[in-house]
Amino acid sequence: MSKTTPNTQRTPDTQRTPNPQPEPPSPISRRRLLGTAGAVGAAGLVAGGAAGAYAAESVRSDPDPLSSVGSTTVPFHGERQAGITTPLQAHGHLIALDLAPGADRKAVAALLRRWSKTAEELTAGKVPADDTGIALDAGPASLTVTFGFGRTFFGRVGLKDRLPEELAPLPDFSADVLDPKRSNGDLWLQIGADDGLVAFHALRALQREAREVARVRWQMNGFNRTPGATSRPMTARNLMGQVDGTNNPKTTDDDFDQRIFVPAKGKPDWMAGGSYAVVRRIRMLLDSWDHLSLERQERVIGRRKSDGAPLSGGTETTPVDLTKVNADGSLAIAGDAHVRVAAPVSNQGAAMLRRPFSYHDGFREDGAPDAGLLFVAWQADPMKGFVPVQRKLDRGDGLSRFLRHEASALFAVPGGCAPGEYVGQALLEG
Ligand SMILES: C=CC1=C(C)c2cc3[nH]c(cc4nc(cc5[nH]c(cc1n2)c(C)c5CCC(=O)O)C(CCC(=O)O)=C4C)c(C)c3C=C
Ligand SMILES: [Fe+2]
């Protein structure tokens, strides 16, 4: 049986318990084609072109049911785009594209229409026209595709008058060592799935569809824990080994929507139901970090490494007590501990939804791992989320000694779309 996780789901990221719902009607699903591909054989596939051969053959039989990981679907359509409150997936691709010279608003609208149709089909486990076959054996595996617009987009297509204030360039931070080639971009795609082939399949399909309209500016690939890898659903860990994500705003918080999403009557109108994504590629100095004693590592964060419990006491989910003092008079959570400096109470209430992927791009010339966090932070306004918090971290965070911010981008991610519409339609046709 297939399972559906609504894209505006309200369960915390740590609880991956999809709601059983029927899969949307599918004229031809990837799995029904699986039987066909086996029957046709390689010669038939080559003769007719892969997609043609798959589509021409009748279905032999239904294959065995998928596991819950493969069968879980996240609906593409909705008031908000999927991939923001969706539980973290095991595989992620972040891609920024620049419009090709001469690509006008009409061409971009056609691209967004194509992309939305393909994303809708792929997330429902259907085979798009002219398919590559990369994901033929698999179900949707919680695939999500999220689309965004960068600041430079608006000038390129004559829409400067619709540029949101919230897309003002992020300020410089003293510790930034940013690579402009891997920063910013006109268009942004975030692809997530619990299967690596399903994620790559979507990336390839969307990149092919960009054709002459847009070219990839940068791409970053990330990962998280695979569902089922732990005995029970648990908060993810990052590559420093810390439990990471505990004190994220919860979808059940009264002010969650207000903090993370642009309201239905918000400005600009085309961003209703949308959100702003800050993307930072943050390399971790893992060799230095791994040399620290466990006690010092925990002091730097303010939480226990084993279970994520705050050093002020309790379990992972116990609220952090920033006033707690040890028997020797020292603060239980140090003055420069990451959770103290980043906490909303230390930043006039500023908060964001952190939804990162880890990355590992091999090793640098000095032998150190080129690895860290693809930090993706979601908020209704970056000036009330990422910016004030990063300003504070930049000045006084004990963790920053072990980090290098190497790339940065900010994207306006519009609300979702209804069947028959496409993401960004209100901007491009409004
Ligand atoms: C500007 C915002 C933030 C950046 C950049 C950032 C980088 C970063 N963080 C970790 C590891 C942890 N962060 C944790 C908590 C935490 N981090 C931020 C913000 C940024 N982090 C916030 C707002 C919070 C929550 C603070 C609170 O209210 O308690 C934690 C603790 C567990 C948790 O709550 O998630 C860890 C661990 C790394 C490794 C990193 C850069 C690579
Ligand atoms: Fe953090």
UniProtKB/TrEMBL annotation:
Compositional bias ranges of the Polar residues kind: 1-12
Catalytic activities: heme b + 2 H(+) = protoporphyrin IX + Fe(2+)
Residues annotated as domain Dyp-type peroxidase C-terminal: 235-417
Keyword Transmembrane tagged: yes
Its biological purpose: Involved in the recovery of exogenous heme iron. Extracts iron from heme while preserving the protoporphyrin ring intact.
Keyword Oxidoreductase appears in the UniProt entry: yes
Lineage: Bacteria, Bacillati, Actinomycetota, Actinomycetes, Kitasatosporales
Family as reported in the entry's similarity comment: Belongs to the DyP-type peroxidase family.
Name recorded for this polypeptide: Deferrochelatase
